[in-house]
Amino acid sequence: MDRKKPWAEPYKIKMVEPVKMTSWQERKQFLKEAGYNTFLLRSKDVYIDLLTDSGTSAMSDRQWAGIMMGDEAYAGSENFYHMEEAIQKFYGYKYVIPTHQGRGAEHLISQIMIPEGDFIPGNMYFTTTRLHQELAGGTFVDVIVDEAHDSESEIRFKGNIDLQKLQDLIDRVGADRIPYVCMATTVNMAGGQPISLKNLREVRELTQKYQIPIVHDMTRVAENAFMIQQFEEGYQEYSCAEIVKMICDLTDSATMSSKKDALVSIGGFMATNDPVIFEEARNLVVVYEGLHTYGGMAGRDMEALAIGITESVSDDHIRARVGQVHYFGQRLKEAGIPIVEPIGTHGVFLDAKKFLPHLTQDQFPAQALAAAIYLESGVRTMERGVVSAGRNKETGKHNYPRLELVRLTIPRRVYTQAHMDVIAESVEYVYANRDAVRGLEMTYEPKYLRFFQARFEPCPFVGEKTRMKKKRLNWRSRMLA
Ligand code: P71
């Protein structure tokens, strides 16, 4: 009988990079200097870095060998053609435009496809995606299923588009005011939630009726394909690579941040099957990114990407990648920590509203929790709540997302199971002492993508002094200090 395969890593480690633990006193100082924003910490002051899985994965020996084969010609680099071939082979799109990273591709597609005043439905916003849609004069409309906004709903494909919401938008504004539907595989802001192929087929059917194209944010498409293989009826016999291809085949164009799924430190691309859009993008890319055969990427990085794409769709790789995330999430869940369920594929998301019920959303609970976790453990995480959601472009008021989350994102092939255990213990410690975590107030707010550079200060507890007198526990005075 075939034994179920374990998720153990399908590789062994050839090179290591030391990490260093700092003292609590040091971290207190670093956090203050960083304005309580984990984006502003220096990486040398971080013990385990779960800020993002973007550009932080470990490359394979093959990829590093590819780096040595960089053809740094200004035009027509051989590595570009390797990259193009890999994209055509594994994702199936005909035309490829390289960009420096995902947002470069988002910029191009938004400028090309969105006329001023149009509406772009999508399965939940992503920060950079929505901003580029808005800068082009468009308005993002969230058409994801309601369950995606509920951290407790355990439906399997929480990334799905609600067809009724999409139909309602078409009826309300008219199909000619919708330049495309933006469909992300593995919905980041929902907690790393997948879409199902069934849903994508239905969206395809509906949009084809109105001749609305689908633009695929394929940043984590292989992880989504793995979830389909594991959980959607009828796909167990297909390989991850085959499912990736099926997904791409149901869409018209794509934007990609290669820094995630595709296992490289930098890079991205726009891809399309439409020759007219391709022609436009080839024109525009030289203005913002670079020539159409490098688009801001070095030749060596395009080579590493071509190899990374091949590795990213391997069943063994993806099982271990998602297996590690699920191992970690399961540990937190068993410890009673409020996390987004089901556990996603690129990280585990803490529900900061439930974790810190004593804070209002105006006190930036997810930001405060990310700061507290760093302070107590040196583990760096990322806020994905009201700070990330930014302000409403018309009213200027905060957007208050229902999900107020802290993301513990797992880089690919970087940390071990022992690291997962240490992080879980740190989060458990903060959870046990959660009522000592203070809210924050924003003292500096940048105009664009404010979460990157905003600064904060702890706001005082009401009646803090009396409380402190009553409870002189050591950890309390530490966290409150
Ligand atoms: C992540 C990132 C990187 C990031 C971006 C913005 C704020 C914080 C962190 C980037 C994505 C993404 C999706 C679904 C497009 C981009 C942009 N994610 N779509 O999760 O997840 O790609 O960073 O290469 O420009 O940490 P880019």
Question: Which key phrases capture this entry?
Answer:
481 residues; alpha/beta; five-stranded mixed beta sheet; three-stranded antiparallel beta sheet; 41% helix
Explain how this protein is built.
The protein is α/β, with parallel strands linked by helices and 481 residues long. Helix content is 41%, strand content 12%. The chain contains 18 helices and 14 strands. It has a five-stranded mixed β-sheet with strand order 2-8-7-6-5, with helices on both faces. Strands 9-12-11 form a three-stranded antiparallel β-sheet. The protein is globular. The N and C termini lie far apart (59 Å). About 3% of the residues have low confidence. The chain binds ligand P71. The site of ligand P71 has 16 residues, from helix 4 and helix 5.
